[in-house]
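hey so u asked for the seq, here:
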Amino acid sequence: MYGNTWFTIYAIIFFSGLSVTLFSTPLCRLLAAKTGFMDVPADNHKGHKKSTPLLGGLAMFSAWLICLAAGICAVKYAPGEAFASIAQTHLPGIKLVSGELMMIVAGAALAVILGLIDDKFPMSASTKFAGQFLVALLAVFGGAVRFNIFPDMPALEIAATLFWFMLLMNSINFFDNMDGLAVGTIAIAMGLFAVIAALNCQYFIASFAILNCAVCCGFWFYNANPATIFMGDSGSHFLGYLAAVVSAQVTFFDKSFSLSRFPILMPLFILALPLFDTAMVVIIRTLNKKPFWIGDHNHISHRFVRMGFSRKRAVALVHLMALTIGLGILPVFWGNFLTAAILVVQALLMLGIITFLQLSLSEKPDARE
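ran it, structure tokens below
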């Protein structure tokens, strides 16, 4: 009964997040048009040919915030006997971490604001990195978000978590190079993180991940090719921030039923494609003596286009690869050492295929739209 109740809660959270985002995104699209918050193509690097609204990050954040506030109210005033029982059981713990949750929300707001400023008034790389570092500090010290990988070395744990936030915010920003690509990939990742958290009895982390997944899915309807609104830096910073928060939290494993010897590898593989793609383009740009923060067409999605795929199919192929790697790594959670080792090798081989594709084609103009 308890498990069925949580399943119902997860379903309510998902459809609520999806519905609110489906409503908030057209409003932000209209707001962008009225305020001139548009992405105007000015060079060949842009993959679109007409001005496109650029307030997708605000659309996702506003829907996320509304649903989060509604969820907190629902916990406090839970209707129904089953829901009230869950709320009564977990309410003391929720109150205990309420301050940290507020800091996580504040960090998300700051990430969106930073992105909005950069969308309207492009920042230098150093200024943007400084802002991202402040966002990471707020989450790590205010929100107490930590990677549980160096329990006896708190300073190293903090440094690793700060780096993780910076890495993911920039990786998702780099990865947002085709319609629907980044938001779809993060939707898949959040769904997988929700499964891990639920299996690990981290019910509220699972709920948080499901809400994030729902918001991504709602925005995807408008951001998929041909996109009628872009997420912009505000959206990529927001999604990168959420991915960092959730992935850090699910590194906490209950050893009473999780046999995993490699808990830290699961977030790395679930987010493998944006992370690996970022690593590859940074290496390629560095070898070509170009600044790594300046965009180009060396991403895996662009290479699929140069292989003859349409943009829409290139994005779908990347999503299928992300889902394949993520689903393949899930049994590491409950498998024994041998099972986990084989699955890790399998995931590494998939990344080897991606590496081969990344290095096979040199940069050329996109073959198809």
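The radius of gyration is 20 Å. Strands lie at 38-39, 52-53.
lmk if thats what u needed
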